[in-house]
Amino acid sequence: MNNIDVKDPRWRKIALWIGFALAGGLGACFLSASPPAEPGTMIPAPSEAIEKSEKQAVTPSTPTISTTIIFHIEGAIRRPGVYQARAPLRLFEAVRQSGGLLPDARIDAVNLAETVIDGEKIVIPFRSEPANASEDNAPAKSAVVRINSATLETLLTLPGIGPRLAQNIITARTQRGGFRSVDDLKTVEGLGAKKLARLKPLIFI
């Protein structure tokens, strides 16, 4: 056998090629042993992720609407005073919250089913006094409709009030939280000064 001369340039080239071949084979083995990527998970493109983030950032929060009212009740009541309650509130609930009626309360003078509005003063009369003697907003004898609690059907009984105008009155009443005086009806769309003048003897707050 002939001796190999490692200094011979031909043998150096052969050794170099053998080294490259071994390195390539090891690399192929390493790549084939790597676990495959898990399917089913999609990463959004940067532009899609940014757009989604911006939409979430500008989404306005739902405003919280207050449903609390304050009313003043006095007269033939066990615990007269100023109270706070959740709306909507009926008069019988306001009476119950203030301790109930006194034995000599004149129940037939009030409508226990009417809706109490924010800031309203309620006076429960005694049997020994006229029904509206102590009410600040006492209606005239000819008044028949209470604007702050009248339904659509009740408003239609008034002269010159049609379905559209009746609905405008209810809408304005809801937006204002109730009318403070009869003159507040001037703000109702379609209700002019002349028509309001004709209605005044027939309505009260």
Describe this structure in words.
This protein has about 200 residues and is an alpha/beta fold. Among the domains are: about 65-125, Ubiquitin-like (UB roll) (Roll); about 135-205, Orthogonal Bundle (DNA polymerase, domain 1), CATH 1.10.150. About 35% of the residues lie in helices and about 15% in strands. It contains 6 helices and 7 strands; from the N terminus they run ααβββαβββαααβ. The chain has helices at about 10-35, 45-60, 90-95, 150-155, 165-175, 195-200; strands spanning about 70-75, 80-85, 90, 115, 120-125, 145, 205. Strand 1 (about 70-75) and strand 2 (about 80-85) form a beta hairpin. The longest helix is centred in the N-terminal third of the chain and has 25 residues, at about 10-35. The N and C termini lie far apart (about 130 Å).
Brief characterization of the structure:
The protein has 205 residues and is an alpha/beta fold. Helix content is 34%, strand content 13%.
Whole-Å distance between the termini? Answer: 128 Å
In terms of DSSP E residues, the strand content is 5-15%
State the CATH superfamily name of the domain at 137-205.
Photosystem II 12 kDa extrinsic protein
Number of DSSP E strands: 7
Radius of gyration: 42 Å
Per CATH, what is the topology of the domain at 137-205? DNA polymerase, domain 1
Order of helices and strands: HHEEEHEEEHHHE
Strand order of the largest sheet: 2-1-5
- Structural class of the secondary structure composition? alpha/beta
Q: Name the poorly predicted regions.
A: 37-43, 131-143
Largest sheet: 3 strands, mixed
In the CATH hierarchy, the architecture of the domain at 137-205 is Orthogonal Bundle
Helical run tally: 6
Bin the helical content.
25-40%
Provide the CATH top-level class of the domain at 137-205.
Mainly Alpha
The 3D shape can be described as: elongated
What would the average pLDDT be, to the nearest integer? 74
